[in-house]
Amino acid sequence: MKSTSRLGAWVAIAIGTLYFLLPLIATFEFSLKMNRDGYSFEAYKVVLSDPGFQATFGYSTLMAVLTIIVGILLVVPTAYWIQLKLPRLRPLVEFITLLPLVIPAIVIVFGYLKLYNSSAWLPLTGNDRATDFLLMCSYVTLALPYLYRSIDAGLRAIDVRTLTEAAESLGASWPSILLQVIFPNVKSAILSGAFLTFAVVIGEFTMASLLGRPAFGPYLQLIGANRAYEPSALAIIAFLVTWASMGLIQVFARNARPARKTA
Question: CA-based angle 151:157:160, to the nearest 5?
């Protein structure tokens, strides 16, 4: 019975692996056919040397970094204060942070355009820098479900109250407690949320497109509508960026685990 169940598990794993890898392999194989003489990385050379790729990927990377910084500064103190002083508000805050998964991004961005257009009381679409700020706020909203849960899980894994009381007994102020005590103890959780946020921002299309910003997501769509082999190369590059982020999450999470004491 055990051997049968084990065989069934391996068969299921094999089917799932093939279902995942075959389209990826086919996409990679197609991206190598730009030269009719044989396989080559010409499509990747064309994409990587394209000024549009460099500009949009650099823009999205900058927006991802800004989103991570603002998100961490917003979420860590909030999650810490809820954990320490306001545990009854946890269900409400968790519900609020889940809303970006329930409300479509196109609805959120149309709300932003209605509230912050050039004739509104706060015209954040009046110039490029203000629109960049609005897009960054949009990305912070999209990243909330991932960033909050990652940091909240990290805070639950440590004794926040004891650490806070010990720091207060030594005369530490609240900013010092956050920066020198809480942040170092949830570093792996913050990094996990940061890499997830990076992956979300790099591939986001709807908000950047409707706000008219030169992000990587709209560039992917534009290339996909007008080229043949380059979109496959871009898909592989985007896949590698995303999975590199996931791999870094695993690396930092593994390094953060305390070593087991041996007798």
Answer: 85
